[in-house]
Design brief:
The complex is a heterodimer of chains A (316) and B (280). With 316 residues, chain A is α/β, with parallel strands linked by helices. Chain A is built from 13 helices and 14 strands. Chain A folds into two domains: 6-171, Rossmann fold, CATH 3.40.50; 187-315, 3-Layer(aba) Sandwich (Rossmann fold). The chains are: A alpha/beta (316), B alpha/beta (280).
Chain lengths: 316, 280
Amino acid sequence: MADVIKCATRDAYGKALVELGNTNDKVLVLDADLAKATKTVTFRNAFPDKFIDCGIAESNMMGVAAGLATTGYTVFASSFAMFAAGRAFEQVRNTIGYPHLNVKIGATHAGISVGEDGASHQCCEDIALMRTIPGMVIINPADDVEAYQAVLAAADYYGPVYMRFGRLAVPRVNDEATYKFEIGKGITLKDGNDVTIVATGLMVNEALMAAEELKADGIDARVINIHTIKPIDEEIIIKAAKETGAIVTAEEHSIIGGLGGAVSEVICEKAPVPVLRVGVEDTYGRSGPAVELLHLYGLDAAHIVEKAKKAVELKK
Amino acid sequence: MDQAKKKELKILACKVRMGIIEGVFNAKSGHPGGSLSIADVMTYLYFEEMNIDPANPKWEDRDRLVLSKGHTAPALYAAMAHRGFFPVEELKTLRKSDSRLQGHPSMKYLDGVDMSTGSLGQGISAAVGMALGAKLSGKDFRVYAPLGDGEIQEGQVWEAAMFAGNKNLDNLVAIVDNNNLQIDGTVEEVNSPYPIKEKFEAFGWNVVEICGHCFTQIEEAFNAAKATKGKPTAIIIKSVKGKGVSFMEDKCDWHGAAPNAEQYEIAMAELKAALAELEA
């Protein structure tokens, strides 16, 4: 097997911003003293006049982004997910979301894979928070290929977009040569009839590994990558529920209000089947190496396998 | 400012005040106190200061107004209506479920509202973003942001003040409506924001303190702001909450309460008498 390419989605964010800088003269990038970590530094180095460091003041940054957007700019505002979605939630809701302004929030260091910095910086609540804002698009890419294209697509779309990126270098699951990103369109990565694993972000790769393991146990699992959590691809989820009869969701986020919540809402109303959720179990993270933490909090293929088996049992 | 101009502005401000009372009375809720205290400045902004075109509210070179103290929307709407953005009669629809006049200003409902506001402390940041947008795109429009003196207890105001000072946004004017009252009492009793002047100066702003109901001083302050290069300007207006309606003046209770029918009649009679005197 060829070596798997590993890259953090935040690196793709930085690269895509540079591409936008070259092609779209209306793009501005804001950061809150985290340019080196969010990777907006790549853009800053290439386009210093189009980069604005707002300092450690995320609330103000969101308002400034909104004001700039009203003057015709496509504004990317970046910080860690904890501060972009958490600290500045109400600014995003009232000053970006409510007037539906053309601001793209580039939130990096999402989830528990932040690692050693610990719980204060491990945001597992951002999808839940952003989902409640009417008109907000939420994108959580699985790898660098998807992240890169998602950023370009966000720039082409008019309106607020929340993009969720990770700190950790993750295996590439998509083929750079053929991959095509479309906002709101889920992707079936592997067909199957016994159960569907609906995954997002770095859990997509774990879902693919889980499907391989399940095969050994005679369970034919479908794997769907939901990169856009809002608006969610209802069609692909309903079809999977009807055809496979059980669903497991997998996300590096709280089991409350994220992908698991979004999928459950669709399934409850439109195609009721058992849904089991893999995610952070309503708790805080802790310090430690990212990969170790992912296992510690059950965010891995083994845990998906376990839940998938339970889901298949529930069908009987 | 000559006497004729001053008289004209006083007449307009009186009509704006009547529009505020009309709106809040018909809505049976709203914020008359702070609307009346900022009414003279709003009148000056909409009739003298701002480069705007009511027929083309989205004109991209227009000056912008961000009502950071968004609860005083009745003053914004009354000034806009009298300036010709929409019929004065529509002021009576304030806060109704089929109205464009939301309880706090919304740019999605009403063209001419430059930013949706209401959550205190947020409008000033958006105003800063607009002023920065003008600088980055080489446009010379100006941005005006009225703030409450209670509102500046919000930390975000000072994040915005630091940023605007550092970015030398001389096309930005913040107006602090210093009527000294907020919902729970005087601003000193609740959580004193004083000294306001020194705080803005510390963040690199030009600061002017004036009477908020004196058009000559208002004109001088906005002219001074325009003449100041390399710094944003904060105009601190000493004002009277409820100004122009005797029983509402300097009373906390009129921050967010509507007059009943009897009180409405008294208020309108006072304003009509003041108008008649001005027009005589």
